[in-house]
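User: I've been trying to design a sequence by hand for this structure and keep getting stuck. Would you show me what you'd pick, starting by listing the structure so we're on the same page?

Assistant: Good idea, let's start from the same input. This is the structure you sent:
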């Protein structure tokens, strides 16, 4: 498939997602109090989008993932929180 074909198919959908991300960040920035580690991790993951290679999705996922390799005895909570707390 040609790049222009991909752009024809997916540009508007992804344009909307980009605007949603910007709106989310605007809301967080305007809110009172300090953001926690998740917002910092989110902003770091966004930097991966500027990479010049074709593995941006992999790098975004890895930037938000638990980098440890040793198992822990029990999970610290009931569910995933979506970002690794450094």
């Amino acid at each position: 498939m040609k790049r222009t074909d991909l752009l024809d198919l997916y540009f508007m959908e992804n344009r909307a997602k980009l605007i949603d991300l910007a709106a989310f960040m605007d809301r967080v920035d305007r809110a009172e109090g300090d953001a926690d580690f998740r917002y910092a991790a989110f902003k770091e993951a966004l930097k991966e989008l500027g990479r010049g290679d074709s593995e941006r999705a992999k790098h975004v996922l890895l930037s938000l993932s638990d980098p440890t390799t040793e198992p822990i005895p029990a999970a610290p909570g009931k569910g995933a929180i979506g970002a690794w707390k450094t």
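That's my pick for every position. To get oriented when you compare it with your attempt: Residues 3-30 form the longest helix (28 residues). The helical segments are 3-30, 37-47, 56-64.
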